[in-house]
């Protein structure tokens, strides 16, 4: 397994440093000056100058790399560009070269041929690729779950039916586009227990409420459910949340739509239960961490 960041460290960084060191020396900077500008030792500058550091020709010969190195060398030599500004410019270039089809992406795919198994049109380095989008959602969800697991007292907010923390992709249309905890989160002897890693398509209940809210224009991309308590509702209102009640005994989508028609800014939905239906509070938010933080603030 090799990450693209390893390509950056092992191939890109030595190459760009070597090119910059050479360009700066050509512009009259001493070995000591170059070391100070690049934030490296003089012995490292000497190694670059004598070709003792392996570089990557494909990176060195990339037009954007050549152009940026020349521009940065001019700016650093004259003082028009600071080392921090140069670092930012290089970081931007790295992100560009990691995009699908560019040199860092090519080097990574060559180092990990298995990436081809995802299909000819797939590019892991495309920030808008489905895989990256899904992984961002799952990563956010895992962070949110850690917040809840480590929140003292959260187990006391878990309803009898269990809680779930869910998050969806930006263009979510159905429950398959919503990730959650398989089997839900339960209170096991006073400890919130997450039985498995989050997956897509495993939450129907909380996912349905989130999707229904989004259909009515809500900005939410994540949600969780906790037990109903008027005191919790009051606390959420005190913290700036807008609440709206809906009837879960009816069609959830229609009921949530009716509730948000009355309070379109609602970030907390709740229902007070009924025959065979446990009363619950649903907290919505822009991402899983934000939702988890809201719950933690109630403890």
TrEMBL record:
Any GO molecular function: DNA binding
HTH cro/C1-type domain span: 26-48
Coiled coil location: none
InterPro entries: Aldolase_II/adducin_N_sf, Cro/C1-type_HTH, Lambda_DNA-bd_dom_sf, ThiN
PROSITE patterns (alphabetical): HTH_CROC1
PANTHER family per record: HTH CRO_C1-TYPE DOMAIN-CONTAINING PROTEIN, TRANSCRIPTIONAL REGULATOR PROTEIN-LIKE PROTEIN
Protein name: XRE family transcriptional regulator, thiamine biosynthesis regulator
Organism from which the protein derives: Natrarchaeobaculum sulfurireducens
